C-alpha cells in the first residue's frame, strides 16, 4: 500500500521522537547501563517497524545508533569510542536493528497480503453467489455490473457483451466515453491500463466474448482472472437463457428438437470450461503436487477434453438436424480415417475386438472429414450397444463399382425386415430394446443425413439372429474412376 506524503511526514518525526523518549528514560528517568539501553532501543525499533514500516524503522535505527554512541558508550557526550570493542558492539547493534526492522516489516507486508487475498476471496465468493441468484426477469448483464461495483467498491463498472453489442453499467460513475475502448479491447483481446481505469478482455475458450472496465479498483492478477471467469459465466448464462427462450417459442415444431439439443450442449460448455481451466491450472501452476494428485488432475484434464468433444458433436448434430450442413471437403484416405475413428472407441470396447480390414489401394474420396467421422462413430457406437459382450465388431471397406462401401458388422440379434427403414427415422428405437439399451434414436438418422449430403447413402443388410451390417456408400471422384 502506498503511504500518502502527509502521513509519511508525520511518521518520520514521530519515529525520531520515540528514540528520543527512550534516550531520556534510560539516561535520566531510570538510569541503566549500555546493554539495557541497547535492548530498549531494539524494542522501540521493532515496534516502529511493525506499526509503520521499513523507512521509519531505518531512520529510527540510525538515530538510535547515534544516541547509543553519544549517551551510553564511553567517552560519554562525544561521537567517539574509546574502547575498540565498543565499535564492534555499536555496529552489531546497528546491524541487528536493521535486520530486525526488515524482518518485522516483511512480516507486516505478508500479513497485509494475506488479509488482502482473504478479502478478495470473500469478494469473489460474494460475486459468484450474487450471479447464481440473479433475477432472470431482469437483465443479467446489468445485475452483474451492479454487483461488481458494490462488492469490489468500484467508482464505476462497464460490461460489454460482444455478441449483442450491449454495454451494462454499474456504480456512481457511468463512464459515458468508455464504449469505444471496451469494443477495442474485446476485438484485440489486450488489456488496457490507465489508472484509475482498467479494461480487460473477457475470454471463453481462448476467444474474447466481451470486455470489462473497472474504475477505482485494482484487484490482484489472480482475483482479476477469477473475476473475468465469473463474468464470462454470467454472459454465457445470458446466451443459455436466450437459447432456452428460442426453444420455448419453437416447442410445437420440428425445430424445437434441434434447438433443445443445442441449448443443452451449450449448457454443458460452461462447467466444462471451468473444469478445464481448473485442471490446466493445477497441472501448470502447482509443481508441488504429489504424483497421485497430478495423475488425478491429468485424468480430469483428459476426460474434460473428451466430454468437450462429445458436446461439440451434439451441437453438430443439432445443426444437421436443422438442415444447416456446410461441407468442408478434403481428399481423404478411407483406411486412415477409419483407423483414427476406431482409436476413440478402444476405451469403450469393453473387451470386444474391433477389427479393421480395408481393401488395398482404395481410391481417395472427397468428403468433410469431421462430418464423415461423426457418421462413422454413430455406426460403430450403435454396433457396440447392440452386440453381445465379447463379440467382435468388424469394419470392412471395399471398392464396389463407382463408390467406396464401408460395412460395420455386429453380432447382435439382427433387425426384422419391417423395421429396417424405420430405424433411420428420427427418435425411432426398436420396441424390443428401447427399455434395455440407452439412446436417443438420432444416431442413425444423423449418419444417413451426413452420407446423403455427400451424395452417398446408408442402408442395412441384416438377418434375424445373424447380426446386422450397416453399409455406408460414398461416391469416388470422377477423375479417379476406372474408364
The CATH H-level superfamily of the largest domain is: Histidine kinase-like ATPase, C-terminal domain
- Order of the strands making up the biggest sheet: 2-1-5-4-3
Q: Provide mean pLDDT, rounded.
A: 78
Helix content: 40-55%
The tally of helices reads 12
The CATH topology of the largest domain is what? Heat Shock Protein 90
As a percent range, the share of strand residues is 5-15%
Question: How would the blueprint of this fold be written?
Answer:
Layout: H1 5-29, H2 34-51, H3 54-72, H4 84-132, H5 140-151, E1 156-161, E2 166-171, H6 179-188, E3 192-194, E4 197-204, E5 207-215, H7 221-249, H8 255-285, H9 291-321, E6 330-332, H10 334-343, E7 354-358, E8 365-367, H11 369-386, E9 393-400, E10 403-409, H12 443-453, E11 457-462, E12 468-475
Parallel strand pairs: 7-9
Antiparallel strand pairs: 1-2, 1-5, 3-4, 4-5, 6-8, 9-10, 10-12, 11-12
Summarize the structure.
The protein is α+β, with helices and mostly antiparallel strands and 483 residues long. The chain is built from twelve helices and twelve strands. 54% of the residues lie in helices and 15% in strands.
Could you explain the architecture of this structure?
This protein is elongated. It folds into four domains: 5-112, no CATH class; 134-238, GAF domain (Beta-Lactamase); 250-321, Helix Hairpins; 330-480, 2-Layer Sandwich (Heat Shock Protein 90). Helix 3 (54-72) runs antiparallel to helix 4 and helix 4 (84-132) packs parallel to helix 7 (221-249). It is α+β, with helices and mostly antiparallel strands. The chain has twelve helices and twelve strands. The longest helix has 49 residues, at 84-132. The strands form three sheets. A five-stranded antiparallel beta sheet has the order 2-1-5-4-3, sandwiched between helices.
